[in-house]
Amino acid sequence: MQLTVREAARLLNLSEKTIYRWVQQGKLPASKVNDQYRFHRAELLEWATAHQISVSPEIFRQPEPEAAPSVGLANALRVGGIHGRVPGSDRVTALESVVRLLPLPEEVDRPFLLQLLLARESLGSTGMGGGIAVPHVRNPIVMHVAEPIITLCFLDKPIDFGAVDGQPVHTLFTIVSPTIRAHLSLLARLAFALRQPAFAEAIAKKRSPDTILREAAAVDRAVAMTNPEAEEAG
To answer: Quick one: DSSP state of residue 136?
Structure first.
């Protein structure tokens, strides 16, 4: 979905003047349509996530007009799994380990998925600072998954992920979604969760899976209160 400067400013809680300045400085991804700047919702959300910029709760609203249940963070983590001491000496080998751990149907081409994840990294690191990266495919395709998943991996040792703050990454949240709508919803919810003190602490201290899932469920409840139209799905 293409957004106007005004819509982008509202979602990022910024002034339109700041949006124009950042676009002209090459800081913010945008395209021109009939001499007007336009923003892709997924790219805008990815950019805000990577730069730890808070987004308006409006981002949780579905971009398509038809109604659909919101995607619960707790359920996505429960389905995707939480793993510790995941091996990897660089981005490639770490993502290879992650792809092996993803709970995907047998018919999914895992080498192809790995190439998609690496292609996304080539466009710009998904390392968002603070030792966390969120690998995902920018334009989700149906990969025979019945529901969106997040696989949380705590790496055996920190690696250089080209993160925005230059710090090595020790935690990966890998997102696989069957639809663009679910991808956007889950990415927005995860970005929101990582700014919540209790959830962030559970991740930073590598708490037990039960603790992490409990804090994720609390995030889902907070989102439901922020956006009454969203259905709680966690």
So the answer is: B
Full-prediction pTM beyond 0.70? yes
- Alpha-helical segments (H) within 51-170: 73-80, 91-101, 110-122
136 given a catalytic annotation: yes
Q: In what order do the strands lie in the sheet with 149-159?
A: 82-86, 149-159, 169-176, 132-133, 127-129
Instruction: Render pLDDT for 22-71 as a digit per residue (tens, 0 to 9).
Output: 999 988 989 998 899 999 877 787 788 777 787 776 665 654 444 445 67
Residues recorded for the chain: 234
Q: Which helix (H) or strand (E) holds 85?
A: strand 82-86
> What's the mean per-residue pLDDT of the chain?
87
Angle of helix 5-12 relative to helix 41-50, nearest 10 degrees, comes to 40
Catalytic residue among 51, 136, 144, 183: 136
What structural domains and CATH numbers belong to the chain?
2-55 (1.10.1660.10), 73-226 (3.40.930.10)
